[in-house]
Amino acid sequence: MLQAGFGSLASYLAAHVLLCLVPAFFIAGAMTALIPKETITHYLGKDAPKWLSYPMAAIGGFVLAVCSCTILPLFAGIYKKGAGLGPAITFLFVGPAINILAVTYTGVAIGMDIATARVVLSIVFGIGIGLVMALLFARDDQAHNEDTVNGRMFAGQARVKPAIVAFMLLLLALLIVGTLGIGLFTNAYAAVALPVPGTDQLQATLDSLIPYDATLGQEGVSVQGLLLIVMLALIAVTAWLGLNHIDEGFNVWSWIALAFAALTLLIAAVRMASGPDSLMVYFTGRFWGELLVIFAIVWVAWKKLEPHEVQEWLWETWRFVKQIFPLLIVGVFAAGVARVIIPPTLVETIAGQNTLLANVVGVVFGVFMYFPTLVEVPIANMFLDLGMHRGPLLAYLMADPELSIQSILVTAKVIGKTKTWVYVGLVALCSTLAGLIFGWFVG
Amino acid sequence: MDIKILGMGCPKCKRLEQITREVTTEMGIDATFTKVTDIDDIMAYEIAATPGLVVDGQVLSSGRLPSKAEIESLLSGALG
Question: Is residue B51 reached through a cis peptide bond, with omega within 30 degrees of 0 on the bond before it?
């Protein structure tokens, strides 16, 4: 049972997952630190036309809202001082639904089909739910609209520096180069045989410690995987020393931690084969691509960004890592253990087919079981392995991040209990629908 | 000096309070600190995002964590 837990951890910290998660955390940090809220909120004022405010609210949800501490105040502001209930609700819904970390992780760990569905359907339903609520509560909205003036938050004009746009695109490139499965990246363009003896024996030991069943899609721990786990531990220590107070300045550990992060990506990008006398390292296209992008990122950060921008970026990135990663490890381990405890027949009977009941169960589970950010992904994968159909799975994935006790309480404070209950109902309805549609589509 | 930190308890708000307290101690400023965590009260200050730094009723910074040096200059500005 413990082996199942560790095995689960091993596949979730595997090379291809890290190539997605590491850049995603840096992107999340950049979004929070470098994009001024005013760029989006400017388009959400009272006089903004609907065709502008709803899409901007959706975009805002994606770009601005990586943690609930940002979403809730912005939601309150848009509602009270701006375009009103509709766009505010769209923002509230889209934010947690297409959180960059969760979406990329879903893509790499479960499948791009579910990740894409999550994004597309969240935007569609986000705008839909916003419009519906605006319609249902039109009279309230009108009255409240008349006695507010356009708050200062909507008057500000903020442009995003071209350097920052370039920087964000480079971070995105890091993510794409790391995860795109095309020949250019997977082919090897150079190889080196490191004269390290006994790596095949090491691999055999690892396989016996953590057995895996390839038919079940498990990956086990490879020598490369072991190296990566060591790197992660090193990063944890050096980042704690070097990034905790990065807002005050860099110290020796900050540089080391960043170097280790880059090294981890590069190690994850090569292909390794263990043998009796040597370890073959294949330098894939992905490796060269990542190397190039890393250099570009460092150059832009050094030459084109202000020191305090770089520091804020790193502080936010590390903040997310501290907040999310430990819980993720626990969650993945627990999911691995639960995977072997829960009888598959139970899951198959309830949610094996794309029925209405299955989707409703998915939603109910998502609403009542609160999991920290990102943990819903390994839990979903566990259900998938146990036989849940992809439709109800999507229903679960959409409902889970939306509704936690804390966010419901604060939402109720801002828009009142009645509207909140309507919102919760609509979220449940749309998640069920999304699951049904997707499930039917995927077959 | 009346200092209010606007925020609902996230790491940035805590750090803002921590640094601002350090600055007031180092600069020898006599300040009373209040943490504003209620969403309605926070919104009354018209900021786009938390954390917010309010000194003697004026919003000096919002939506980001200013550097210690920046907080020092903001507070000296508020003094003089």
Answer: yes
- Closest partner residue to B49 (CB to CB) among A73, A312, A315 is A73
Could you tell me which residues come within 8 angstroms of residue B19 by beta carbon, excluding any fewer than 6 positions away?
A247, B65, B68, B71
Q: What angle do CA B52, B54, B60 make, to 5 degrees?
A: 80
- Amino acid A150: pLDDT: 56
| The pairing of beta strand B32-36 with beta strand B2-6 | parallel
A15 and A92 fall within a common domain: no
Which chain A residues touch B15 with a CB distance below 8 Å? 247
Do the chains contact at B46 and A33, CB–CB below 8 Å?
A: no
Domains in chain A: how many in total?
A: 2
Q: What are the catalytic residues of B?
A: 10, 13
Using a pLDDT cut of 90, give the percent of chain A over it: 11
Q: What is the pLDDT of residues A50-64, one digit of tens each?
A: 888 888 888 888 887
pLDDT at B74: 87
One domain for residues A144 and A258: no
Element housing B36 (H / E) = strand B32-36
For residues A155 and A292, the answer to whether their CB atoms sit within 8 Å is no
Residue A329 maps to a domain: no
Question: Across the interface, do B8 and A36 touch by the CB < 8 Å criterion?
Answer: no
Among candidate residues A265, A291, A310, the one where a domain is terminated: A310
Interface probe, candidates B22, B47, B54, B74, chain A, greatest A C-beta count within 10 A: B47
User: What pTM, to 2 d.p., does this model score?
Assistant: 0.84
ipTM: 0.71
Answer yes or no: do A189 and A278 share one domain: yes
- In terms of CA atoms, which chain A residue is nearest residue B10? A69
User: pLDDT at position A153, please?
Assistant: 60
Shared domain for A20 and A61, answered yes or no, is: no
A/B interface, count of CB pairs below 8 Å: 68
pLDDT at A219 over 60: yes
- Average pLDDT of the residues of chain A: 83
Is B39 close to A80, i.e. CB distance below 8 A? no
CATH number of B18's domain: 3.40.30.10
B22 touches chain A (CB under 8 A): no
Say yes or no: A146 and A254 in one domain. Answer: no
Residue A199 vs residues A103, A235, A276, A287, A308: alpha-carbon distances, Å:
35, 24, 6, 22, 44
Same domain, A145 and A197: no
Highest mean pLDDT among A120-129, A379-388, B55-64 belongs to A120-129
